[in-house]
Amino acid sequence: VVALILFSLGGVFAIYEGVHKLGDAGHELENVGWAVGILVLAMAFEGYAFRTAMKESIPLKGQSSWWEFIRHSRNPELPVVLLEDLGALTGLVLALIGVGMSVVTGDSRWDAYGTIAIGVLLVSIAVVLVIEMKSLLIGESAREPVREKIVEAIAGSAPVTSLIHLRTQHIGPDEILVAAKVEFEASLGNEELTDAIDAVEASIRSAVPIADPIYIEPDFHDTEHPDLG
Question: What does each of the 229 residues of the chain score in pLDDT, given as a tens digit?
Fold first, then answer.
């Protein structure tokens, strides 16, 4: 949420500043050498930070593309850091281009264009954060490969007749809540049913170690609502 606010307010202010510069006919760049030097130094620092974020993300990314990792990661901090560093690097490049074009052409409006471009970039990143992180704030289901493992673990337990209904929700990057309605063999007694439920829970944890807590409700299959959910 803090990152979203920073990107949104920063982007809106940058756009305002750029438009203000365009309307300032007497706007001229000052201390160009210092500006270029600071931008280049900042790019070096941000480049190192971006490299570190990528290095930390690679083990979690696996075979997915970087965009897929940002879209589907259940670890919100890494995608936010990646977007922040990438946005900072891109913004610094835009700022350097704006300053450079202003010096080469003698037209200070290039500096204003660069500022506006940075503002649009920041707002765009804020929009991506809204779309991708909203579900993590309100709860997001397990990814399909993980869900399939849970279904196989339940269906593969001997006393289980059928899986009636399943819901999963990430309550943390490494914690998935699992709730399922399961039909067991009708011949099971109370103690046998309890043992069967424990066996199903153990099977789920074996297949998906981060599945916790797990709630299994014995029920009879309703043929009018066959959807697993």
Answer: 777 788 888 889 989 888 888 876 555 666 778 888 888 999 999 889 889 888 888 887 777 788 777 776 766 677 778 888 888 899 889 888 888 888 888 877 888 888 899 999 989 888 887 777 766 666 677 888 888 999 999 888 878 888 888 998 877 777 888 999 988 888 888 888 888 888 889 999 989 888 888 999 888 766 555 554 4
pTM of the model: 0.59
d(CA 63, CA 42): 31
Helix (H) or strand (E) holding 177, with range, is strand 175-184
Non-local (6+) Cβ contacts of 170 within 8 A are 74, 136, 139, 140, 141, 142, 176, 177
